[in-house]
Amino acid sequence: MLGIYLNDHLAGSTGGLELARRTAGAHRGTEAGTTLTRLAKDIQEDRETLLEIMAALEVPVRQYKVASAWVTEKAGRLKLNGRLFDRSPLSSLVELETLRLGVEGKTCLWRTLLIVAKHEPRLDSSRLDMVLDRATSQLESLEAMRLEASAEVFTPA
Predict the structure, then answer these.
(1) C-alpha distances in Å from residue 29, one per residue of 6, 23, 33, 80, 89
(2) Which among 3, 64, 71, 91 could disulfide-bond with 59, CB atoms 3.0 to 4.6 Å apart, if both were Cys?
(3) Nearest 5°: phi and psi at 130?
(4) What is the mean pLDDT of the chain?
């Protein structure tokens, strides 16, 4: 069951990383773009940490799940946003909310692995604490950006 759980989170991190990169690119040259670029780097590092944990626990990577998440993120780009040829402000809000949900899921993963680490010597609790702290910081950054995007979209000019 742990293998299924870890592979599901690996798939989620794959989609989340692609979304973070795309969102950072859409905001290139802005303060939000800088924050999102750092977030994408952090998500990539967290994904690598997850892969290292899976290797330590001898959990094989299920490539079909990873590929499915990658394709799903690409397909998500086709959603209607109220505009045909340019980016809608609503796109940023929805992307930030989706990223926030993904990071929330990642915090659940790290907390679950901290419980597993109590009886699994191959897991490093201090490293899990570190990535959990980073995820908490990511949530705070994303929430601040989400609130700002909400105000931009829904506050009358």
Answers:
(1) 35, 12, 6, 25, 16
(2) 3
(3) -65, -45
(4) 88
SS3 (DSSP) at 138 = helix
Residues composing the chain: 157
- Report d(CA 94, CA 76) in Å as an integer: 11
Identify the domain containing residue 95 by its residue range.
Answer: 2-154
- The pTM of this model reads 0.85
Query: Is residue 83 scored above 70 in pLDDT?
Result: no
Contact (Cβ atoms closer than 8 angstroms) between residue 99 and residue 23: yes
Task: Indicate the number of domains in the chain.
Answer: 1
CATH number at residue 106: 1.20.1260.10
Q: CA 23, CA 116: separation in Å to the nearest integer?
A: 33
Give me 138's structure tokens: 């990511």
